[in-house]
Amino acid sequence: MMPTEEDILRSINSNQAGYDRRGVEPKDEEPYSKTSEVLAFIWETAKIIIISLAIIIPIRYYLVQPFFVKGASMEQNFRNGDYLLIDEVSYRLEAPQRGDVVVFRYPENPSQFFIKRIIGLPGETIEIKNNMVKIYNSEFTKGFVVEENYLSSSQETFGNHLVKLGENEYYVLGDNRMQSSDSRSWGPVDKSLITGRAFLRLWPLNNIAKIRGVSY
After folding, report:
1. Could you say which of 11, 33, 116, 129 is catalytic?
2. Which residues, in sequence order, are CB contacts of 115 under 8 Å at separation 6+?
3. I need a labelling partner for 12 at 20 to 30 A (CA). Which of 28, 42, 97, 190 fits?
4. In whole angstroms, what is the distance from residue 73 CA to residue 181 CA?
5. Domain containing residue 173
């Protein structure tokens, strides 16, 4: 019996059932790879960490440094536990100024860091007497008394000292003069020991502020 047109069409459709529209046999879809997703996530995270470190490390070691205040030697302006940022760049471009609050290595034990305020500059003569700090330099040959409005009214600058500073030496005092170990006890600080200038207080949160310079 000759096949009818209907038989021919049925045969053609049957043969094409195992092929897709392009005339090829369909393949099963590859299973979704969770491993690839995890690896991609790890790589993206690693890139973020690497880029962050590339930015943070130079800032941390060459531009700014965190510092926790310990003790009461700078009260009432800086208290125990204050968290400060120290500017390490400025003093590479300019000399420290009178009134700057600086962090430096303790001259008698460089492994320790102190925080004090600069009072005397290189080449000056510092006289402490009768609760006064007097500065002698080329501009004021007869001396001038340092007006320290940042000190509390109860403070007294004890001691009887007359010190001539060398070329790179700075005379530093704590704001809490009655409880401060400073240049009155162990002498001036060489510039090479100064880490940087305190410029920002980040803790406590209710006292976040830029640390401003002092005008005499």
Report:
1. 116
2. 67, 69, 73, 74, 78, 84, 101, 102, 103, 198
3. 28
4. 7
5. 66-207
Question: Is 33 within the bounds of a domain?
Answer: no
- Give the tokens for residue 19: 């092929």
Sign for the pseudo-dihedral over CA of 89, 94, 95, 100: negative
116 is catalytic: yes
Q: What are the tens digits of pLDDT across the range 21-63?
A: 444 444 554 555 677 777 777 877 776 776 655 555 545 555 5
Task: Please report whether residue 60 resides in a domain.
Answer: no
Q: What is the CATH number of the domain that holds 185?
A: 2.10.109.10
CA–CA separation, 185 and 159 (whole Å): 9
Please report whether residue 71 resides in a domain. Answer: yes
Task: Write out pLDDT tens, residues 187-209.
Answer: 999 999 999 999 889 888 888 88
Q: Is 15 contained in some domain?
A: no
Contact 111, 119 (CB under 8 A): no
